[in-house]
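W.,

You were right to be curious about this one. When I first looked at the sequence I had no strong expectations either way, so I just let the prediction run and decided to look at it fresh. Below is the sequence, 382 residues in total, followed by the output.
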Amino acid sequence: MKMVREEHSHCESDVKLKFAPNNSFQIELRRRVDDYLHTHGLRARDCFAMYLKSTLILTCFVAVYVLLVFVAKTGWQAVPLAVLLGFLASGIGLNIQHDGGHKAYSKHGWINALAAMTLDMIGGSSYCWRWKHAVFHHTYVNIAGHDTDIDFGAMARLSPYQKRLPFHRWQQFYLWPLYGFMVLRWHLFGDYRDLVAGTIGAGGPRFVRPKGWDLAVFIAGKVFFITIAFVIPILFHPVWKVAVCYAIAASVMGVTMSIVFQLAHCVEEAVFVPPPGESGRIENAWAIHQAETTVDFARGSRVASWLLGGLNFQIEHHLLPQICNVNYPAITKLVENTCQEYGVKYAEHKTIWAGLVSHYRWLRAMGNPDPASRAQATQECK
């Protein structure tokens, strides 16, 4: 098993950031985790529990889709099924696709590729996701201008090093429902815009446009999704009913996936690093940066861990992105103890509710025009 940074040799970002070279914490953590997995007879990848969970999630997704499209006749039947379909689509993204995209699903590249392409099945692009999430986010967590996952444009201020606009004063209220629109934008606009512009988001970092097989998968995935989301249902139901059910499922998916991310990085306990400027130098080593900009939540909940693909163990995931998520509960105390031994910050919320409250307070703080907030936001310029 290798613990590596999710960087890419063809990254076209304008500023090349450099982390501090001291990686003794990273080396020792990797050694301890390797020893633990070997001693306890655990596989880093190709875990039976993950294959079983994937089969169950995909089977339920297909079954609910069939019931919604071919069986449901009334609103009271269709709406709960659309909600459930949204949750199951989230389960595919958070579990199967996420592990596949990080090469954590299997030691075989083709299995990882198939797992990653389940995102194309539910409306995203596994190719664009790899750049946005696995490259830019996982390398530059919580660094404004480099971590594309905290860039909401003018809609929100998630970092103290982003510009505050007057209406951000109310973002702790209006962002929650807007999370539901993230997937709709992703499905209907985002990936296409990124492909044409060659950037992740408007004005975001440049990436290599897909070619050959990658482009074929992108196109085939979009055609497949449009077919199952709109073409087939419209053959059996009025357009407006199809639109309503799609909006419900996509909104549920958007809220679920957005909140899982926000509870890991956009909370009071997470560190936000000022953009390094022209020097491109980050004070901490990469592994230390990953741990201190990330927060775990609900580590004691087996239900949350199973449903969320282990992404409530975000510190473990960011330090060990190529380990299958079913291993996170077993290694979490080892990771925490190693962090404490090396003086690395390790933060967690005991429950999902505690994480939600912290995210609310963080949004409120980032929208607050008080002097302390303004001073922190302008620290980089001083």
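Here's what jumped out at me. The chain has one domain: 18-157+164-381. And, maybe more interesting for your project: Strands lie at 18-20, 281-285, 295-297, 347-349.

Coffee later to discuss?

I.
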